[in-house]
Amino acid sequence: MRHMLNRCVKDLHEQGYKLAHINGLKPKHIHVLVELWKQQGKNPATIKNYMSKLRKASVLLDKPQLVKPGNDAYQITRRSYAPTHNKAIYQVDFTRCTDPLIRLSLEAQLLFGLRREESMKLVLSEAWQGNCLRIKPSWTKGGIGRTIQITNDEQRQWLSKAAGQVATGESLIPVSRSYKQHLGHYQVQIKQMGINKCHGLRHAYAQRRYHELTRQLDPQGRGLVCPIVGGKSSKLLTADERMLDRKAREILSRLLGHARIAITKIYCG
């Protein structure tokens, strides 16, 4: 957050507003920043992320009136969660990753749907609780903790392997590195593997889990396939299928660490 706030002050300086410190921020400056970000072509999701950080800063600065509670007041376009193509990554040659801890993190993203940061900050000795992983809020984006059920042998094999490689009480970040340093090394590793972004591993988990959940909830045991991989769109679902879809998405949103069911559209269509 500090880097982003310093960037805001610098941007305001370039716009002619001479702030000596972040404490000098006023409501008019927020409007200036939003308009600047729009002019720079930043997408609505990025701008909303910035606004979220500014709201947190306003609490820390004891300036509750600094940022308005809703984004509509700043005419920020509502985000569309409908994907245009499937971003899932199902096939990865993990043997091309030469760093054992980064390989574990990549595998955890695919097997448990963890975000990149979560897959590194995970302290396995604390998270692994028998038949589930308990993800602490301090490891997550937005501070939303969650419980992920262990449902297959591949996950159990990974847990046993990881437990043998990582000491009790340690995360998947080497003790000799900070998170920032390890993230830089991570980027080098995935580039060498021929991968640009690994968020698609999480998409693959979500799509697989959606089908498993709908099959478990379906009295006939058939389940549904995600629209993004060729399944029915919501408009074509029967009433019973729509109920399955809704229940599965509610569970899936929690498994992914999201508070809103609408975000499952990004992963599943």
Automatic annotation (TrEMBL):
SUPFAM superfamilies: DNA breaking-rejoining enzymes (SSF56349). Residues 3-56 form the Putative integrase N-terminal domain. InterPro entries: DNA_brk_join_enz (IPR011010), Integrase-like_cat_sf (IPR013762), Integrase_catalytic_putative (IPR024456), Putative_integrase_N (IPR024457). It comes from Legionella geestiana. One of its GO terms (biological process) is DNA integration. The keyword DNA damage does not apply. This is Putative integrase. The keyword 4Fe-4S does not apply. Keywords: DNA recombination. Residues 92-207 form the Integrase catalytic domain. Pfam families: Integrase_1 (PF12835), Phage_int_SAM_2 (PF12834). GO terms for molecular function: DNA binding.
